[in-house]
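Protocol step 6 of 9: fold each sequence in the batch and record its structure tokens directly after the sequence line. For illustration, a two-sequence batch is reproduced in full.

Sequence one:
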Amino acid sequence: MNDFFAKILDWFESTHLQEQVKDVDVSGLFTNPWFLVPFILVVGYLLYKQGWKDLIVISIFIAVWWVSGTEYMDTLIVNGELQINKILPVLFGGATVLGVVIYMFFGRSD
């Protein structure tokens, strides 16, 4: 089983996905019409159809992407060691977001 996870980890590292996400030009992305037009159409369609759950999930993805690029996230690991006093707010924030998503999809009925 460890070999299976090692292969997945090796594949993930070979894609350099973390560097690609970190190097995204946000201002360039949100001024690029090839991204902006479909994004606005999707948001407009979801507003028209009143797809609030989907809009909230999209907003959560954008917020997590934005937060992951802040200086605070860069200081979570110092000299190869995880800073516990800085990781706890991230864990509680993630648990809160996860709780909201679980409540949205499983906790209430429409």
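Sequence two, same batch, same settings:
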Amino acid sequence: MGKIRRIKRRCAVCAKNINIILHDRKYDNGHYFGKLKLPVGKGEHKKVGVFKSGKYKFDVVKWTGKHKELEYWECNKCFEESSHECWLEEKIEKLFGKKCKEHEPHCPVCEAWSLYETILEDNKGKLS
């Protein structure tokens, strides 16, 4: 086994410290998603074009000021939780359909999505 190095990072979701173990071009105890460039200081979002998707149009903007580059890490707990949420969302959508725009009493789709939201809220309370 090659040289082992330890680094500390902060989870982008829960803000807890993560102790990352680096070895042989691999890492343990966290999930790395890459680097983000965040706008900082003085500047503005200047329109540089338009993106069209079907009947929708979106402005394309560029930040004219400086950027701060940050690594995006998630702790194992936050990563696992989000993958379970994603799985549950997919199952509910497959079984009941997409979430209704307006909640309607006695609608099975609304009831299923309401239960999903209750589970998420209950889980968030236990994680705090």
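Proceed to step 7 once all outputs are recorded. Observation for sequence two: Helices lie at 76-96, 108-127.
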